[in-house]
From TrEMBL:
GO terms for biological process: translation. One of its GO terms (cellular component) is cytosol. Binds directly to 16S ribosomal RNA. HAMAP family: Ribosomal_bS20. Gene3D superfamilies: Ribosomal protein S20 (1.20.58.110). It comes from Sulfuricella denitrificans (strain DSM 22764 / NBRC 105220 / skB26). Residues 1-29 are annotated as: Disordered. Residues 12-29 have a biased composition (Basic and acidic residues). This is Small ribosomal subunit protein bS20. GO terms for molecular function: small ribosomal subunit rRNA binding; structural constituent of ribosome. Keywords: Ribonucleoprotein, Ribosomal protein, RNA-binding, rRNA-binding.
Length: 87
């Protein structure tokens, strides 16, 4: 356990930040899953709408460096391809 006051504070801050990051990473995954579910359902208009909402979430999480910008870009690209490929 931390011995100094500053080490105890850093430990508290780390715990808060870890919880925040975990929550936002979960939000990222949920956004991706929503698009996949909409694509599987087969409604192209709904899938486009969900995709646009998800892009906002994905970008904000990448801006905060919770996930790497290239990972966010890769997910957006694959989701967009899936939406466009719908008949």
């Amino acid at each position: 356990m931390a011995n100094t006051a500053q080490a105890r504070k850093r430990a508290r801050q780390s715990d808060k930040q870890r919880e925040r990051n975990t929550s936002q990473r979960s939000e990222f995954r949920t956004a991706v899953k929503k698009v996949i579910k909409a694509v599987e359902a087969g409604d192209k208009e709904a899938a486009k709408a969900v995709y646009l909402e998800s892009v906002s979430v994905i970008d904000s999480i990448a801006d905060k460096k919770i996930v790497h910008k290239n990972k966010a870009s890769r997910h957006k690209s694959r989701l967009n391809s899936a939406v466009k490929a719908m008949a």
